[in-house]
Specification:
Belongs to the AB hydrolase superfamily. MetX family. This protein folds into two domains: 259 residues, Alpha/Beta hydrolase fold, catalytic domain (Rossmann fold); 98 residues, Rna Polymerase Sigma Factor, Chain: A (Orthogonal Bundle), CATH 1.10.1740.110. Helix content is 34%, strand content 16%. The strands form two sheets. A nine-stranded mixed sheet has the order 1-2-3-5-4-6-7-10-11, sandwiched between helices. Helix 2 links the parallel strand 6 and strand 7. Helix 3 runs antiparallel to helix 7. The protein is globular and about 70 Å long. The structure holds acetyl coenzyme *A and L-homoserine. The site of acetyl coenzyme *A has 14 residues, from helix 6 and helix 10.
């Protein structure tokens, strides 16, 4: 196992330009997966802030959501398609200041430096359609290997929202002794029927794009960007509340119809086109499908005798933080975690936005994090 600042050739197939110097890459070797398949030579990309204390007791793991990456804070620039997705959470004056050693890992199956479907398989060609099915448990198993390499036996805190919240809770279930405090935002103990249904719809939008080519599109002139953009449009509606969309866009028209045959383009359509196109330019469609299916696998209680039994061995502090207007991960899912594990704290984020509130209400998330780190 080794750590490097240059991406190993095996990870560099999907958009070579997306591998900046400040990101580090660790090889964690072969990973046996829940499916019974295995991934040889797994690489994880990660970024760090601060220093690990001599006692190794100040490490904080920040877990990103579906289309996030290891770039939690910082500018967009070479290698970083977007600015940090949780601005103000790490750095001087932020809750995660120099007292902490913060790590964010691009998830296994992702497309920002970690092994994913766009990486090279052992034959040198992209995995594409051959990439194995992943589960949230596989992703956490990979992250535990990275922690081993860095000499982190126990996280001071693990925090994440949505898919990052799934991994946070899975850390608690699969490595209870390695987590001090866990903060899971806008998530639940399992993927619901509705979440799986929305995922299916999005994955079908990708797979039915004529340019999908069964998933082996990397050396084609075009990929399934249109399908991915449709998937993002569908997802983005679920990430926002009905009331927010109504108040922001109502029935306003962005572009007037051209001629008698024309139809108006509603402002909300323009907004969804924007988000669909933006994601299609920065994200790999195969990764999107692989990660969506990993989210579908999420079920803390699976083969563990239920959620309560899965959380029983954890003696640390667990905080769950739903967004009150979240229709995709409704607050009842957090309440179920509280009911399953006595002592779990509930901190509700108030937002008009909906699910994306865990990203947009950064002040509330910062306050929550500050309180929890203080021990309140
Ligand atoms: C800070 C970042 O942007 S992180 C980007 C990387 N993203 C991730 O890592 C995933 C997490 N992030 C996300 O999912 C989303 O980007 C969120 C949650 C941060 C967006 O939330 P908000 O801040 O509420 O943004 P909002 O939904 O209002 O969208 C703003 C965008 O829509 C555009 N927009 C707004 N109205 C319209 C319209 N009628 N027509 C077209 N575009 C529109 C804005 O110009 C803006 O564009 P930009 O993002 O390219 O600057
Ligand atoms: N908008 C976020 C939320 C997903 O839960 C993302 O794209 O990662």
């Amino acid at each position: 196992m080794s750590v490097t600042t240059t991406p190993p050739a095996s990870t560099a197939l999907w958009r070579d330009g997306d591998h900046p110097g400040e990101r580090r890459f660790v090889s964690i070797g072969r990973l046996e997966l829940e499916s019974g398949e295995s991934l040889p030579d797994v690489v994880l990309a990660y970024e760090t802030w601060g220093r690990l204390s001599p006692e190794r007791d100040n490490a904080v793991l920040v877990e990103h959501a579906l289309t996030g990456d290891s770039h939690v804070v910082g500018e967009a620039g070479p290698g970083h398609p977007t600015a940090g997705w949780w601005p103000g959470l790490i750095g001087q004056g932020a809750p995660l200041d120099d007292d902490y050693f913060v790590i964010a890992i691009n998830v296994l199956g992702g497309c920002q430096g970690s092994t994913g479907p766009g990486s090279a398989a052992p034959d040198g060609r992209p995995w594409g359609s051959r990439f194995p099915r992943l589960t949230i448990r596989d992703q956490v198993a990979a992250e535990a290997r990275l922690a081993d390499v860095l000499g982190i036996e126990r996280w001071h805190t693990v925090i994440g929202g949505s898919m990052g919240g799934m991994r946070t809770l899975e850390w608690v279930a699969s490595h209870p002794e390695r987590v001090g405090t866990a903060i899971a935002l806008a998530t639940g103990g399992y993927a619901t029927a509705e979440q799986i249904g929305w995922s299916q719809t999005q994955i079908l939008a990708i797979r039915n794009d004529p340019w999908f080519a069964g998933g082996d599109y990397y050396d084609h002139p075009q990929g399934p960007e249109a399908g991915l953009a449709i998937a993002r449009r569908i997802a983005h509606i679920t990430y926002r509340s009905e009331l927010e969309l109504h108040e922001r866009f109502d029935r306003r028209v962005q572009d007037e119809p051209a001629g008698p045959e024309g139809r108006p383009r509603y402002t909300v359509e323009s907004y969804l086109d924007h988000h669909g196109g933006k994601l299609a330019r920065r994200f790999d469609a195969n990764s999107y499908a692989v990660l969506s299916e990993a989210m579908n696998s999420h079920d803390l209680g699976r083969d563990r005798g239920g959620m309560s039994a899965a959380l029983q061995a954890f003696t640390g502090r667990l905080v769950v933080a739903p967004v009150d207007s979240d229709r995709l991960y409704p607050p009842r899912l957090s309440h179920e975690v509280v009911a399953a594990r006595p002592g779990t704290q509930l901190r509700t984020i108030s937002s008009a936005v909906g699910h994306d509130g865990f990203l947009t209400e950064v002040d509330q998330v910062a306050e929550l994090l500050r309180d929890v780190l203080r021990g309140d």
